[in-house]
Amino acid sequence: MDTSKRMRNMDTTRFSVPVDAALREAGELVAAGPWADDTGALLVFDVERERLDRILEADPYYGVAGVEVVRVREWTPVVGP
User: Fold this and answer.
1) Is 72 among the domain residues?
2) Which of 11, 24, 70, 74 places its Cα 20 to 30 Å from the Cα of 49?
3) Element housing 23 (H / E)
4) 77 lies in a domain?
5) Which of these, 41, 34, 40, 47, lies nearest to 75 by C-alpha position?
6) How confident is the prediction for the chain on average, in pLDDT?
7) d(CA 6, CA 44)
8) How many domains, in total, are found in the chain?
9) What domain range includes position 59?
10) pLDDT at residue 80 in the model
11) Domain annotation covers residue 15
12) In a domain, 71, yes or no
C-alpha cells in the first residue's frame, strides 16, 4: 500500500489522545502534526534520547501496521522559547 493511502486510512485524531495530552502537559511533546501532503507526520519532543525510546516503546500506536518511526534526529533550535 502506498504511503498516502496508508495515511488516509489512519486515525487522524491520533494527536488528541490522552497520552499525548499528558506528554504535552509535561512539556515533553512540543509539537505534532501531519505533513501538508498527508505522507507522514512530525513530532517534536523535548526529552533525552533514553526517555524518547521509552515513550515510543510504551505507545501502542507505533506498533500499528503502516506506522513507523523513519528517523529520530537531535535538533538544536536557535529561535524559539
Assistant:
1) no
2) 11
3) helix 18-25
4) no
5) 47
6) 78
7) 22
8) 1
9) 3-63
10) 77
11) yes
12) no
Amino acid at 76: T
**All cell numbers assigned to 24:** 504535552
In the chain, the amino acid numbered 42 is L
At 17, list the grid cell.
Answer: 489522545
Closest CA to 25 of 37, 17, 13, 33: 17
> Quick count: other Cβ atoms within 10 Å of Cβ 14?
18
* d(C-alpha 33, C-alpha 40), whole Å: 9
CA distances to 9, 11, 15, 19, 38 from 46, rounded to whole Å, are 29, 24, 16, 16, 24
CB 72 within 8 A of CB 62: no
